[in-house]
Amino acid sequence: MVDEHANLRELNVQSQGVNLAKVRNFVVDVAKDCGFDENVIYDIKVAVGEAIANAMEHGSPLGEANHVKVVCRCDGDNLNIQITDEGVFKRAFPVAEEAVSYRGHGILLMLALMDKVTIDESAHGTTVSLTKNFRPDSQEATKTA
Amino acid sequence: MELTVRIEEKIPILDIAGEIDHFVAPKLQRQIDELIDAGNDRLVFDFSNVNYLDSGGIGVLFNAMQQLAPRQGRIGIVCGDPNVIRILELVGLFDKRTRVLLFGRKDKALKALEGKIEVG
Question: CA-to-CA distance for A1 and A75, rounded, in angstroms?
Fold first, then answer.
C-alpha cells in the first residue's frame, strides 16, 4: 500500500524568469527519487520547463507579483506534475498564433515527451497536468536506442 | 547561460555554456541579431557545454534560420549531448529545408560552413 502523502511534494515560486531553473531542478530531484531513468528525467525536465514558462508568461497577469505552484505526486505507476498559475483571464492556451515565436514548440514538446498532458482553465488560474508513466521496460529500450 | 562570441575563419562562433531557457533566450537572440545585422550569413553555435535547451532556445534558432534564409545562409550546431540533440531532432531543426547542420566537432562545422558545399 503506497502512502500517497509521503510521495507528494510541492513548490511555490514567484513568477520570475530566474525561478525557471529552480522549478526544473526541483522536478529533476523528484523524478530521481521516483526512480526514473536519466533520459526520461531529461524529458520530464524539458516538459516541465515549457509548462512553467507558459505559466509565468501567460498566466501571471500581475507579472512577478504572481505565483506558480508545482505539485508532484509519485506512485508506483507514474509521476504526475501539476503546474498552476494565477491567470484569471479566459484565454486560449498559446499554440498556433505564436508558431514563430519562442513559445512555438512548447506544446509540441510537452505532448511528445510526456505520456499524458491535460490543461484545465478555471476562474482562478490554469493548471497544466503532466504525467509520465513508470515503465522499466520502455526505459531500458530508450537507453539502448 | 554563459555566452561568448569569437570569429574563426570569418565565421562567428557562439560559444554557449549552461542552460538555454525562456529566461535567457532574449539575450541570445540579441547577440544573433547583432551578428546577422553586421552581415554574417553563417553562424556556428557551439553547444558542447550546453546541458539543457527548451523551446526558448529552439525559437531563437528557428528565428536565426528564418533571418538567414533569404541570403542562403547556413547554421552549424556543434553538440554531443544526446538529450539536447534528441530535442532538436524532435522539432525538426535538422530537416533538409532548414539549412541547419549538426556536427560532433567544431572544426568539422567550420570546414563545412567555410566551403561551398550545398546543403540539402
Answer: 10
Amino acid B40 reads: N
- Average pLDDT on A115-127 reads 91
**Cβ-nearest to B58 among A39, A57, A105:** A105
Each residue's pLDDT tens digit, A33-58: 999 999 999 999 999 999 999 999 88
Q: Tell me the DSSP string of B59-120.
A: HHHHHHHHHHGGGT-EEEEE---HHHHHHHHHTTTT-GGGTEEEESSHHHHHHHHHS-PPP-
Element (H, E) at A13: strand A8-14
- Whether chain B has a CB inside 8 Å of the CB on A45: the answer is yes
Beta-carbon pairs below 8 A across chains A and B: 66
Residue A132 near residue A44, CB atoms below 8 Å: yes
**Considering only CB atoms, which chain B residues are within 8 Å of A105?**
55, 58-59, 91
Report the Cα A39 to chain-centroid distance in Å: 16
Ordered domains of chain A (ranges, CATH)? 15-144 (3.30.565.10)
For the record, the C-alpha cell of B62 comes out as: 528557428
pLDDT tens by residue, B4-21: 999 998 999 999 999 999
What are the structural domains, with CATH classification, of chain B? 2-113 (3.30.750.24)
The arithmetic mean of pLDDT across residues B47-65, rounded, is: 95
**Inter-chain residue contact B23 with A17, CB threshold 8 Å:** yes
Best residue in A19, A28, A44, A46 for a mutation probing chain B (most B CBs within 10 Å): A46
